[in-house]
Design goal:
This protein has a single domain (about 25-445), classed as FAD/NAD(P)-binding domain (3-Layer(bba) Sandwich), CATH 3.50.50.60. The chain has helices spanning about 35-50, 65-70, 85-90, 90-115, 135-150, 160-165, 185-195, 265-275, 325-340, 385-400, 425-445; strands at about 25-35, 55-60, 75, 125, 125-130, 155-160, 170-175, 180, 200-205, 210, 220-225, 225-235, 255-260, 280-285, 290-295, 300, 305-310, 350-360, 365-370, 375-380. The strands form three sheets. Strands 5, 6, 7, 13, 14, 15, 16, 17 and 18 form a nine-stranded mixed sheet that branches. Helix content is about 35%, strand content about 20%. By secondary structure, it is of the alpha+beta class. It contains eleven helices and 20 strands.
Length: about 450
């Protein structure tokens, strides 16, 4: 009889040493709140530009405790809605620039992972977005037409092409070259270690309680349970905690998503499911299952149920939170896992876990100034594409904090706030729940 699945990802736990809490009255040149990839990338690039800068990184728990350590390790180019929707909604030039920027973001993550000594688990390989439904075929056809009209090269894969790469039947797909998979927690911890080596000071177990913006003469003040931090420049890489803190950045919805991972597969099953070229597969239908291999030869499957998850405690994903819903989501993912390939019928599920992502109403991230203050920045709302986007946003914000940003460097999706969703009203919350249930039903209908 196999052991029960661990309710945690199969990723590296990283360093166990804890930094002190924020206590007393402290100060710094720059305070970065959030020791995930966005916050750490900001600190890393700040210190690379100015090694003498006094940079403090604060986290409610510890590095990689949130989405950056609980993701599934898919590194692919995508920002905002599908390319055809983006071209229609924002204009062709913006859609094209955004896609190219997302491709550059993926390449920079690969380079940064190698630079900070975290190549373990990093595996280049194409990312396939595929479908098994008629509506999915129509959607991919629209995307293919949009890519071609914008002069972007995203090859179309036939059913036979996909079967050769990942051994699972799909009708058709799009291949995103230059993608990769990696251990997100190991990367986050390696980035934290590099920041500390460069001189960043860390404080753990310190949830931010409030912020008083500074003036021309006074620094901003950040309030914690046991002390305060004062700094001229502040970066709030807090993702979906923006609403809890009352930040005027629009609505960044905290949504809970789920994944499971198997024990190592038999060599022939591993080879059939992408072992030859490291390809990962994402179903084109929202919340439908996606999968990729892990460095030890297991398989990660994510997708399915999505639920609104306002934070009620640091981390927001304790074992007691919505346990029945999480177990049901994991059970459904395991059932879908068994159907992917005959070689997966009896493989043990070794890990199952949940995590929170930040979603915006229009699918675009928020990276910009808080309330128009020139030296207080917010990063969040990557809508499930945070592995590449978070690092890109940290680099971008650091370039603005260290001096005039280079000409032409403005991100196509730079903005100070997302559209507002009035979640304080009961009708809005009911509509959100109905929409999420609809997405879940659609995922369950996917063959």
């Amino acid at each position: 009889m196999s052991a029960p699945a661990a309710e945690s990802p199969p990723w590296s736990d990283g360093p166990t040493a804890r930094a002190p809490r924020v206590a007393g009255s402290l100060s710094a040149d720059v305070v970065v709140v959030g020791a995930g990839l966005a916050g750490l990338a900001t600190a890393h690039h700040l210190l690379a530009s100015d090694p003498s800068a006094d940079v403090v990184v604060v986290d409610a728990l510890r590095p990689a405790a949130g989405a950056s350590g609980r993701g599934t390790g898919l590194l692919g180019p995508r920002v905002g809605p599908p390319i055809d929707v983006a071209a229609r909604r924002f204009g062709p030039s913006v859609a094209r620039a955004a896609h190219l920027a997302s491709e550059a973001a993926v390449a920079r993550v690969i380079d940064l992972a190698a630079a900070v000594g975290a190549p373990a688990g990093l595996r280049p390989g194409g990312q396939i977005v595929a479908t098994r439904t008629a509506s999915g075929l129509a959607s991919l056809a629209r995307q293919d037409a949009a890519y071609r009209s914008l002069g972007l090269t995203v090859p179309v894969l036939s059913a036979a092409d996909i079967r050769r790469r990942v051994g699972v039947p799909y009708h058709a797909g799009l291949l995103y070259r230059g993608a990769a998979t990696l251990d997100p927690a190991a990367f986050t911890h390696a980035l934290a270690t590099a920041c500390a080596a460069a001189g960043a000071r860390f404080h753990h177990d310190s949830p931010l309680l409030g912020l008083r913006p500074g003036t021309l003469r006074t620094p901003s003040e950040l309030r914690f349970a046991e002390g305060t931090l004062r700094a001229r420049k502040v970066v709030l890489a807090v993702n979906a905690d923006a609403d809890r803190l009352g930040l005027p950045v629009g609505t960044v919805l905290p949504l809970r998503v789920h994944a499971v991972a198997t024990a190592p597969l038999a060599p022939e099953v591993r080879a059939a499911l992408g072992g030859a070229d490291g390809a990962s597969l994402v179903d084109g239908s929202p919340t439908a299952p996606y999968f990729r291999l892990t460095p030890d030869g297991g398989l990660v499957v994510g997708g399915g149920r999505v639920s609104h998850a306002p934070r009620h405690e640091p981390g927001g994903d304790g074992p007691g939170h919505d346990a029945a819903s999480r177990v049901a989501a994991w059970r459904w993912l395991e059932e879908r896992l068994r159907r992917l390939h005959p070689g997966l019928v009896d493989v043990p599920v070794a890990h199952r876990w949940s995590g929170r992502i930040g979603m915006t109403v229009d699918g675009l991230p928020v990276v910009g100034r808080v309330g128009g203050h020139p030296d207080i920045w917010y990063i969040g709302g990557c809508c499930g594409h945070g592995l590449a986007m978070s690092v890109a946003h940290g680099r971008y914000v650091a370039s603005h904090l260290t001096g005039p940003a280079p000409a032409g460097s403005r991100l196509p999706w730079h903005r100070d706030r997302a559209p507002r969703l009035p979640l304080a009203s009961r009708p809005a919350r009911a509509l959100l729940r109905a929409h999420l249930r609809q997405l879940e039903r659609a995922a369950h209908r996917t063959p």
